[in-house]
């Protein structure tokens, strides 16, 4: 893929959900820009605690309003999310080799049972704006999921009267806005 993309590859950011939180995948993707939502409460090189304990000790770097889409029995709403971030070194789970240096970004609601995203990225976060940018990459994952869901199911695009020059992507996005 990198060969085919050439110079464009430098601008590509891979965004993955929890299923991609696999040590070897994180290691492989650490050489490129990537954002992975953590599923594993991993051990850290620099602290006796674990990854999911970090939000308790990190300072809040800012907040963000997240538009939560309706899903199942849950109504659409807006959630106020607090963002914190830190450089971390994730220990190799089999205790071999060096720890993997990554950036950790946490985006969570203040409520006890509120949403919480533990994000690991190969990108750097030197400011609250950088951390917010990393969160925005993960937020956009949902739009891509919906696009692929419609594409795979056939959606209604095959019934549209698309004019020449209008792509499926443009048609689909116009229906979402």
UniProtKB/TrEMBL annotation:
<dbReference type="InterPro" id="IPR047768">
    <property type="entry name" value="Tn5p-like"/>
</dbReference>
<dbReference type="InterPro" id="IPR012337">
    <property type="entry name" value="RNaseH-like_sf"/>
</dbReference>
<protein>
    <submittedName>
        <fullName>Putative transposase</fullName>
    </submittedName>
</protein>
């Amino acid at each position: 893929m990198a060969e085919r993309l050439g110079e464009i590859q430098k601008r590509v950011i891979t965004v993955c959900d929890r299923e991609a939180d696999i040590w070897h995948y994180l290691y492989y993707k650490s050489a490129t820009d990537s954002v992975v939502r953590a599923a594993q409460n991993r051990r850290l090189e620099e602290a006796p605690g674990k990854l999911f304990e970090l939000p308790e000790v990190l300072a809040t770097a800012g907040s963000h309003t997240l538009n939560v889409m309706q899903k199942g029995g849950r109504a659409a709403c807006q959630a106020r999310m607090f963002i914190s971030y830190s450089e971390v070194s994730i220990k190799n789970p089999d205790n071999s080799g060096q720890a993997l240096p990554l950036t950790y970004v946490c985006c969570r609601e203040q409520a006890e049972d509120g949403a919480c995203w533990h994000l690991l990225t190969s990108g750097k976060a030197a400011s609250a704006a950088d951390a917010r940018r990393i969160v925005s990459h993960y937020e956009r994952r949902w739009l891509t999921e919906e696009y692929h869901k419609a594409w795979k199911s056939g959606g209604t695009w095959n019934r549209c009267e698309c004019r020449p020059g209008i792509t499926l992507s443009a048609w689909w996005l116009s229906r979402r806005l």
